[in-house]
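Suppose a colleague, Dr. K., hands you the sequence of a protein chain of 308 amino acids and asks what its three-dimensional shape might be. Before reaching for any lab equipment, you can write down a predicted structure in token form. Begin with the sequence itself:
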Amino acid sequence: MEILKVENVTKRFANHTALDDVSLEVPRGSVYGLLGPNGAGKSTLIRIINRITAPDSGHVYLNGHELAPEDVYKIGYLPEERGLYKQMKVGEQAVYFAQLKGLSHREATARLKTWFKKFGIEYWWDKKVSELSKGMAQKVQFIVTVLHEPELLIFDEPFSGFDPINANLLKEEILALRDNGATVIFSTHNMASVEEICDHITLINKSHNILSGSLEQIRREHGTNIFEVEFIGDRTALATQLTGKGFSLLEADDEEPSAVQKLKIHIDDHIRIKELVSDINSTVEIRSFREIIPSMNDIFIKAVSGIL
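The predicted structure, expressed as tokens, is then:
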């Protein structure tokens, strides 16, 4: 069952339509990628989900009921444009934000101490925010976002400004939150991160939802019938064997008959894979055979460009 449902949402600002009849469903316990180029409407949708602004038409449902003011306590939101009060102490400010989400001072302090230690910033509790590096400040903001253990977490470009080590730490924590029952909406331009952690995605372009589904399903649906075979043997003989049988040879490495070679093959829709493998294996020694599934980056570019 979905935790969040967006139904026919439209939002206009003056002469600009930010969202035009957008619908999507976010499965409970998933990491859901919200993708799209700059200006597509992602941030507007996120603000509507957080009740920062309201749609002109359409509905948003959380746990089966229309989104209500008290639901903001069930949501953790880390915006792309982040800010902390620079003259406050780190711990003092973190406790303040936690109390805004309904935690007592005592509970907030205990949870924060655990998270600060996990992220290696426990010694910065009494430092001023102005003394933090950008990465450390982002860690504090991430902690404050998840501290009250909300059902739904929304991260807008959470890895922006992080080095690879800390970005990986954050990815692990996001997956751990999902595994512990939270649902995560993850807005990003980084397609590599999408492939690493997202279960489902929606792609918004020019105010419209143009692509939705599970990550694996979308990648397979947009496959182009291209396969890669690794083999040992005579490549020329293999090419002759496949000629006129619905196969197109696309790419091959330098021919070394005694070594493992790679060959990319495009297969017509009517070809049976079992027959293809049999034809190849009758001519050369197959070491591996795999379908080349397009990356989300390739799909993103084609979808936004109107090629799909």
